[in-house]
Write a structure and sequence with these properties.
Layout (H helix, E strand, L loop, with lengths): L4 E2 L2 H7 L1 E2 L4 E8 L1 E8 L2 E8 L3 E8 L5 E4 L16 E7 L3 E7 L6 E10 L6 E2 L4 E4 L5 E2 L2 E7 L2 E7 L3 H4 L13 E7 L5 E5 L2 E6 L3 E7 L5 E9 L4 E2 L6 H6 E7 L2 E6 L2 E4 L2 E4 L3 E5 L2 E6 L2 E6 L5 E6 L4 E9 L2 E8 L4 E7 L1 H5 L1
Antiparallel strand pairs: 1-3, 2-29, 3-32, 4-5, 5-6, 6-7, 8-9, 9-10, 10-11, 10-12, 12-13, 14-15, 15-16, 16-17, 18-19, 19-20, 20-21, 22-23, 23-24, 24-25, 26-27, 27-28, 28-29, 30-31, 31-32
């Protein structure tokens, strides 16, 4: 496979200074990492290659790291006014992969698009016309998308478009105050469910979806809800309203709900600040902080360093699957990305 290099154990040992060894089945690809997601034994890695746009590769750890590129390039590194675009989100399910592109924001406007491709041989296509803001009429357009994935299921729903107000426009947000939220499901028996009220998605685990309620102007109220894939309400976990309002995403686990906020991670009885990347694997939280990959039990307070990132590495991303945890690291100065696998033995110590 062109552009892919399997690393030997010696190379991995040089690349990572670890307290517990990483699986020596890493690979390197052209481009810098933009996002990472996982479902079962498969990892989706999005990279940006200057001049060639963004691409998504699927890496199957159940078949020796077999790698396949998702058909269709995303419009990155070639945005408005020559500025670079990026991937703002990536979600992998059993039946499809989804991504959000941020089309090179400038002082004159910004556009975001939700893309999807059916697996295993689908082509990336925009789901709709996207959402945007502009200094020219129309000043705002379209509804945003809220997405959550887990357990092979990807859930999507329309959400308020705050791009205009967030960029100093006096206009109110679009797509607010919905009487009913329609949630589309990929990888589930039902293709859609309906929840009364206005909600955005926080987390999914293949059986349940965690939701955050929105008020009539689109702001989070601090109320959480839990629904099954049949749309029926379930008992919601208790979370402080201030944390529910600040949450940007979450993970549903048997040990409790873990939330990601602007300031860090919030779990049952603990907080972690200054987190640059995070995921949840079994009953553990794995995260990157100060150049280290660390792990903590969800119902615990002791942190353990799994490995230290290379001194020259910059961006890092984490995603958990049935294989353990995948770590994507930007190799500074090379324009390449290294993808490593951290096994359960490594994570559990």
């Amino acid at each position: 496979m062109a552009g892919l290099k399997l690393l030997t154990p010696a190379v991995v040992a040089l690349a990572l200074s670890a307290t517990a060894a990483a699986e020596p089945s890493a690979l390197t690809v052209a481009g810098t990492p933009e996002a990472l997601s996982a479902s079962g034994p498969v990892v989706a890695l999005a990279t940006a290659d200057t001049g060639n746009g963004c691409s998504i590769r699927l890496v199957d750890f159940a078949h020796g790291g077999k790698t396949v590129a998702v058909r269709g390039a995303l419009p990155c590194a070639a945005g408005w006014d020559g500025a670079e675009a990026s991937i703002a989100g990536l979600w992998l399910g059993a039946k499809a992969v989804f991504a959000v592109t941020d089309d090179a924001p400038t002082i004159e406007g910004e556009k975001r698009l939700l893309w999807s491709a059916k697996l295993p041989r689908g082509t990336l296509d925009a789901v709709d016309a996207g959402w945007s803001w502009s200094t020219n009429a129309p000043f705002q357009a379209g509804c945003a998308w809220s997405v959550a994935a887990g357990g092979g299921v990807v859930a999507t729903t329309h959400a308020p478009n705050f791009l205009g107000p967030d960029n100093g426009m006096t206009a109110v947000a679009l797509c607010v105050g919905r009487p009913t939220t329609t949630i589309l499901l990929s990888g589930a028996r039902r293709t859609r469910i309906y929840v009364r009220g206005s909600w955005r998605l926080l987390a999914a685990d293949g059986r349940r979806i965690a939701l955050a309620r929105l008020d009539p102007v689109g702001a989070p109220t601090g109320e959480l809800a839990l629904v099954g894939l049949d749309g029926k309400r379930l008992s919601a976990p208790h979370v402080a309203a201030v944390d529910a309002r600040a949450a940007t995403r979450g993970w549903l686990t048997p040990s409790g709900l873990v939330l990601r906020t602007q300031s860090g991670l919030v779990g049952p009885g603990w907080r972690l600040a200054h987190i640059s990347a995070a995921t949840v694997a079994r009953d553990r939280v794995v995260y990157v902080r100060d150049g280290r990959v660390e792990v903590r039990k969800i119902r615990g307070r002791a942190d353990r360093t799994v490995l230290r990132l290379p001194a020259r590495s910059s961006r890092a991303f984490l995603a958990a699957g049935s294989f353990g945890v995948a770590l994507a690291v930007a190799q500074s100065g090379t324009g390449r990305t290294a993808l490593y696998r951290l096994t359960w033995q490594t994570l559990e110590g």
